[in-house]
Amino acid sequence: MTSLYDRHRAVIPDWVALYYKEPIEITHGEGRHVWDADGNRYLDFFGGILTTMTAHALPEVTKAVSEQAGRIVHSSTLYLNRPMVELAERIATLSGIPDARVFFTTSGTEANDTALLLATGYRRSNQVLAMRNSYHGRSFSAVGITGNRGWSPTSLSPLQTLYVHGGVRTRGPYAQLSDAQFIDACVADLEDILGQTRGSVAALIAEPIQGVGGFTSPPDGLYAAFREVLSRHGILWIADEVQTGWGRTGEHFWGWQAHADSGPPDMLTFAKGIGNGMSIGGVVASAEIMNSLDANSISTFGGSPVTMAAGIANLSYLLEHDLQGNARRVGGLLIERLRAIGAGIAAVREVRGRGLMIGIELVKPGTDEANPQAASAVLEAAREGGLLIGKGGGHNTSVLRIAPPLSLTVSEAEEGAEILEQALHNV
Q1: Which tens digit of pLDDT belongs to each residue from 153-199?
Q2: Is the pTM of the predicted complex or chain greater than 0.90?
Q3: Are 318 and 94 in contact (CB under 8 A)?
Q4: How many whole angstroms separate alpha carbon 94 and alpha carbon 335?
Q5: Strand partners, 101
Q6: What gap in Å lies between CA 58 and CA 224, rounded to an integer?
Q7: What is the bridge-based pairing of β-strands 357-362 and 399-402?
Q8: Closest by alpha carbon to 130, among 234, 205, 238?
Q9: What is the CA angle 257-260-262, rounded to 5?
């Protein structure tokens, strides 16, 4: 009988990556665990790429989806949609953006596309600033602002993109500087780039913590310092919160709040965790910017009654159970445990992150050279031990990415750390 893997390869593009030498089919989940088709149980430390935010098969979300599907599944944005308005009201308030408007999409890629559309139209410019090592999605325009060659299959773009230093603290020409000096050097780099542009620049788009780039981040306050420069030029700041939003970093509800001295961003994009697996993305912007679009636009599937019902239930659960606080507490314990483990392993260069968004960077022992082979080997060994994790990184995919559901318990964190410790020692 033909295996599911063979059938996959026969009809799905080669560039759709699969984890593991022997890919697994995940059939069901509960809480922080999932099961594969062979009945193996795994502790999930990746949550479908930071998307299962609260828990697998969360009863509140399942109930909301089922009840809404029993009434109506789809209507489009051409009609009034109560669940969409209710979720938009809550997100607008939480965003911190004054006089906010919310437009729903079906993914983070589409959300970033929309933000770019708004920014370039509002500013009448196709020049965009982005961060080195960044990732913003897989569409044509999103690829055009992605500063990570592993996820940028074409150099063609409708945008002129200029890349700024600052997203990676411990590598690059400014790595040896103090935090204050690092920020000053990055601001000087930004000023220098703006001195080379012709006319206006539309926006800077930046992930507060770079996701695909390996959970790297600048010192707190960098984007506030950038914002002072941008504001003098009228340039918009787009905070890509697709991976950092909803309290995952523990210390803050949004990643931009670590850089809040100059106020909230002009636009905020979100996706992934809010739907807990349902397809929700979106953009938040002030009414002035959002309403500047001077052509017709709708979203056939953005704001679907079913996905909005899921988002409302999921967000309510997150807030009522203080999962941001749990991410701070349990994530703090987990990162310290992993740092203690890493201190005794020569291949571990750095353990970094915040809350339940943790990266372990692997190198060839005794060097600073990235070690993607070791990352792949640890990924395999962790799976064999009953733990699912992710990987990412800049020039080479050598960072283990750890991002469990935000309801992770202390005992589950300890269990996962023990499996990771064994996997790292085996490799």
Answers
A1: 777 788 989 999 999 999 999 999 999 999 999 999 999 999 988 78
A2: yes
A3: no
A4: 27
A5: 285
A6: 37
A7: antiparallel
A8: 205
A9: 155
